[in-house]
Design a protein that fits this description.
By secondary structure, the protein is mainly alpha-helical. Helix content is 77%, strand content 0%.
């Protein structure tokens, strides 16, 4: 229906509809968007909460398993980042953390690819941990110390291998057994075992 006569009701209606996209329709679209967000929020919150709980539970299970595996072997302890941190904290109480720090520095040193950086790192590690009266001197014999000194003249990724192995053996035979008997590790292992028992009782 159309009418071009002045004052025609159909013409007034057309003019009114022409104004809708600017006012009413935009408000309706905005309201629809807001309602959509509100309707989806509970569902999203529920999914996020569930996911977070699953991730937290998984981390706790992994942590518990790690703690109990540390006592299986020294290798298992050194493979675990949290195990290394716990062992380092224990060594601080015995004032012997330099042994682990030297071992970790050697592990990082082996990953160095640049020959220039390899030489500078080697000298820095030797001066900090190996040479006589070094600030953080590790407990190695004179022969191993001299072999390591000679290795610096043509530094390779293996130049600390012997000194690192001696330090590792010392930690494994001396510090590691005391760590497993320490009150801090006993507490951690009891908590880990308790979480494992609780998990099995709920399955």
């Amino acid at each position: 229906m159309s009418c071009w006569m002045p004052g025609c009701p159909a013409l007034s209606m057309c003019r009114g509809l022409a104004a809708l996209p600017i006012t009413c329709l935009e408000r309706a679209k905005d309201l629809k968007t807001r309602l959509g967000i509100l309707l989806h929020k509970p569902e999203m919150g529920h999914k996020t909460g569930s996911s977070s709980k699953l991730q937290l539970g998984s981390r706790r299970r992994d942590s518990s398993r790690d703690v109990l595996e540390w006592r299986e072997s020294f290798d298992q302890l050194l493979k675990s980042k949290s195990g290394v941190n716990a062992f380092h904290t224990f060594l601080k109480t015995e004032f012997s953390e330099e042994n682990l720090d030297f071992w970790l520095a050697c592990e990082d040193f082996k990953k160095t690819r640049s020959k220039t950086k390899l030489a500078s790192k080697a000298n820095r590690i030797f001066e900090e941990f190996v040479q006589n009266e070094a600030p953080r001197e590790v407990n190695i014999d004179h022969e191993t110390r001299e072999i390591t000194r000679k290795n610096l003249s043509g530094a390779t990724s293996a130049c600390f291998n012997e000194a690192q192995a001696k330090t590792r053996t010392l930690m494994e035979k001396d510090s590691y057994p005391r760590f497993l008997k320490s009150a801090s590790y006993q507490d951690m292992s009891k908590q880990a075992a308790s979480r494992g028992t609780s998990k099995r009782s709920h399955t």
